[in-house]
Amino acid sequence: MDGVERAVRRIASNDRFAQLVGTVIQEVRPGYARVSLEVQDKHLNSVDIAHGSAVFTLVDMAFALASNSHGQVALALNMSINFLKATGAGSILTAEATEDKLTNRTGLYRIAVTDETGEIVCVAEGLVYRKKELI
User: Fold this and answer.
1) Span 3-134: which CATH code?
2) What is the DSSP string of 49-117?
3) The whole model's pTM is what?
């Protein structure tokens, strides 16, 4: 079993919070992941827009899959996120994580979230520490 398959199996079956939120894995390949979320009423905050934590969970899931796709356990060291557009119930959000730089010990990833019209909802950057342990 290759790194991509191991990462998808472990994360898809063990990330209970992402399952609770309702993220859906669309595609994973080495250094890349695409994950989606249909914004539902349960994802809305007090002013009826998608809660930042729901969007962040989508970002984090794509980040986790992309960074673990090489077969090594990768753990977040830092994440920066910029929310650019509010969305509401019924929106389909898609996060795409791409690898910018990979070393023996770290990996840098950019994650962009778009809505169903292709407009950018948020952008993020994440840094991982790569353990020697296989996922």
Assistant:
1) 3.10.129.10
2) SB-HHHHHHHHHHHHHHHHHTTSEEEEEEEEEEEE-----TT-EEEEEEEEEEE-SSEEEEEEEEE-TT
3) 0.95
